[in-house]
Design a protein that fits this description.
It is an enzyme of class 2 (transferase). Its main location: cytoplasm. The chain is α/β, with parallel strands linked by helices. About 35% of the residues lie in helices and about 20% in strands. Bound molecules: S-adenosyl-L-homocysteine, iron/sulfur cluster and FE3-S4 cluster (F3S). FE3-S4 cluster (F3S) binds next to helix 1 and helix 5.
Length: about 450
């Protein structure tokens, strides 16, 4: 089936997993003859790729869905589709089927590859289509993918997660962990290099458990070694690494690689051992600190960032103080901070001693204040006045006269340069002339 002069929009919520799926959905629609538009009134298909990591994420999607009702009434042939993590939750899927009658298509995270046949079914049979596999299938390779052009690309290496942190919905909505074959990842990276990409970010919920599902022994460190040799790629990043599986071998391979960046995103979640245990994170505060020490010792100048949750069930003021204390001790470059949000079906949602909303927001504010202060101190103390290599990504979002890019430590730098365009995709030296909490300001050094 090939359509003409038809358009689609995909609204993507949530993490890079969804962004990756949306690129594949866009690729398949492109192959069917649909072209992408940014105008909703022009669209023949609107897909919403949803996230359910916290309640707020879900509320945003319901808001968007409600707003589309009017458009569907005006344009009955419009196909409205919902996919992503929310559709994997039974009660949410039921609610959408029943109460949102303007939704024509609902499919799960394991059904992405079936989009073309689902669209055909809607068009030919004029019926609503629901396709949600509860369990993951084999990894499907070779699907078309429409990536935005650029300097930096995401490369998925694992799907799903086996960790079952007690607060987290991901293992339930994304299924068990599956690793892509090394040769498929290498081939994709070579193709990206030939298309002009300079940086790749290896993507998975827990990248350093990559390969655990293989018969032969081949792990994340082996993959990094193989990718390090690919010509044209200048920088390698990865997201997310779990502190528990960060082996000495991995620290060693990263320290000795040519291209892996000196930025470590190591979500710690909490500073109290009681809370860490209840979260099922599989490490103690002491083990985490030891790992950070090892990394700093083997790499010299590094950036360490993290994710933190406040108000996990049973978290006392003392537990929270332990988180603040850990933050002061490690001195993270930055942190994603969250108030615990109960997710139906996860063990923590059923735990007694849920923390009051007021306490969660008070703790969150205190944590953010402390982290912001540290971020600013690091930027002022270690960056201001010094020169760093920056991979130029394009014009700065806030000021088109400036360019923007990142240091190897993943700091966002906005900077002035004598001539802008030609530098995109290049690695340049930038001297930092102003340090802010979230970004740096600089000028190119020739
Ligand atoms: N796989 C990654 C991140 C997954 S989700 C990891 O393990 O680090 C990103 C972040 O969202 C988590 O690190 C956690 O800090 C936060 N998060 C997940 N579930 C949450 C919940 N129910 N409430 C609040 N924050 C949550
Ligand atoms: Fe969720 Fe934990 Fe898996 Fe991360 S490692 S996706 S927090 S279960
Ligand atoms: Fe959200 Fe699903 Fe990612 S729940 S954070 S989009 S894996």
């Amino acid at each position: 089936m090939e359509v003409e002069n038809k358009h689609f929009i995909i609204h993507t919520y949530g993490c890079q997993m969804n962004v990756h799926d949306s690129e594949i959905l866009a690729g398949m629609l492109g192959q069917m003859g649909y072209s992408q538009t940014s105008k909703e009134e022009e669209a023949d298909i609107i897909l919403i790729n949803t996230c359910t990591i916290r309640d707020k994420a879900e509320q945003k999607v319901f808001g968007k869905l409600g707003a589309l009702k009017k458009l569907k009434e005006e344009k009955p042939n419009l196909i409205v589709g919902i996919c992503g993590c929310m559709s994997q939750q039974e009660e949410v899927a039921e609610k959408i089927k029943k109460s949102y009658r303007h939704v024509d298509l609902l499919f799960g995270t394991h059904n992405v590859h079936q989009l073309p046949e689902m669209i055909k079914k809607i068009l030919f049979n004029n019926e609503r289509v629901f396709e949600i596999w509860e369990k993951e299938g084999e990894v499907v390779e070779g699907l078309p993918q429409q990536r935005n052009e650029g300097v930096s690309a995401w490369v998925t290496i694992t799907y799903g997660c086996n960790n079952f942190c007690t607060y987290c919905i991901v293992p339930y909505v994304r299924g068990r962990e599956r690793s892509r074959k090394p040769e498929d990842i290498v081939e994709e990276t070579k193709r990206l290099a030939s298309e002009g990409f300079k940086e790749i970010t290896l993507l998975g919920q827990n990248v350093n458990s990559y390969g655990k599902d293989f018969d032969e022994s081949y792990d994340f460190a082996d993959l990094i070694k193989d990718l390090d040799d690919i010509e044209g790629i200048e920088r390698i990043r990865y997201m997310t690494s779990h502190p528990r599986d960060f082996t000495d071998k991995l620290v060693d391979v990263i320290a000795n690689s040519k291209k892996v960046c000196n930025h470590f995103h190591l979500p710690v979640q909490a500073g109290s051992n009681t809370v860490l245990k209840k979260m099922n994170r599989g490490y103690t505060r002491e083990e985490y600190l030891e790992l950070v020490g090892k990394i700093k010792k083997s790499m010299g100048h590094v950036a360490i960032t993290t994710d933190l949750i406040v108000g996990f069930p049973g978290e006392t003021e003392e537990d929270f103080q332990a988180t603040l204390d850990l933050v002061s001790q490690v001195r993270f470059d930055s942190a994603f901070t969250f108030a615990y949000s109960p997710r139906t079906g996860t063990p923590a949602a059923k735990m007694e001693e849920q923390v009051r909303k007021e306490d969660k927001s008070r703790r969150l504010t205190a944590l953010i204040d402390l982290q912001n202060q540290i971020s600013k101190e690091i930027n002022e103390g270690s960056y201001l006045g010094n020169t760093f290599t920056v991979l130029v990504e394009g014009p700065s979002k806030n000021n088109p006269d400036f360019l923007s890019g990142r240091t190897t430590t993943n700091k966002l730098v906005n900077f002035s340069a004598p001539s802008n365009e030609s530098l995109v995709g290049q690695i340049v030296k930038v001297k930092i002339i102003e340090a802010q909490t979230w970004s740096l300001l600089g000028e190119v050094v020739l």
